[in-house]
Amino acid sequence: MRLVKAVLAASIGAAIALSSSVQAKQITIGFSQIGAESEWRTANTNDVKRAAKENGINLKFSDAQQKQENQIKAIRTFIAQKVDLIGFVPIVATGWDNILREAKRAKIPVLIMDRDLTVSDPSLYVAKIGTDMYTEGRKVFDWLDEYVTKNNIKPRNGGDKINIVILEGTVGASATTGRGNGFNDAMNDSDNKDKYKILASQTGDFTRQKGQEVMESFLKSNRNDIDVLFAMNDDMALGAIQAIEAAGLKPSKDIIIVSVDGVKGIFQAMMDGKANATVECNPLQGDLFFKTAQKILKGESVPKSVFVEEGVYTSDNAAEVFPTRQY
Ligand code: AHR
User: What residues does the Periplasmic binding protein domain cover (predicted)?
Assistant: First the structure.
């Protein structure tokens, strides 16, 4: 009798396990990444893939090789494959309305990661997980102004303005406009705004190679006038450091260098005395992304924008923080 009861209990248990595994169908998510333009982007991609695995998601990952048209194609493929949810990083802010209408007609929710987008109808996507690019730009200026004031920095050419050059990111990307607007607004709001002048500003497309090339051309025309480099990402700053050294100048001393991201490469440069500060842009967004996707698919409401946490690191604390950096 005891044996019969045990067999009965085991088979009921197995039946319950079977029925709940049938109910918990694995979620399939199509994700379109921009490409691999920077150390930051590689860390972001690795985190998305890791988090998908750990959250039990069937991930269809597509790399757009820096082209919006490839992202649109990938999203159309995800729609045809009837994935449960579509995620993507908008390489530029505009040009998404039509494809997002197709996703809406197919009743597939869309969750944005990292960069912002501008659409005519906000219901075309459910929410965005990412970073606050505008605040990052403000933090860059605030750090710079404090540093210049505290260290009583004077223009190298003996003039009356601290001359700044800017390496911008991809044209039309929210990371570029957000950081640029944040920086300019913080400068205009500052009591010290008349101390500074933006000497030149040009895109380096968020890559090390172009950062180096554009810095070379800045130095060709203004070698003795540049006091500050604001690079909208660390990779461009790292490329620019090579150009500055090749021009016979000392990065971080002759030219103050502040950038955005907080990747290990810039920490190394700060520890080597070649860069001054980085404003963090946190690429580790995978867990938040997939947890939010799961909530959306369960019909729970989620905030329209969720930002990850970010800090500011300088050459003074780089060595202490470096061992804790994950990317
Ligand atoms: O969108 C985030 C930006 O894109 C990062 O600052 C940059 O490194 C990346 O390529």
Answer: 29-300
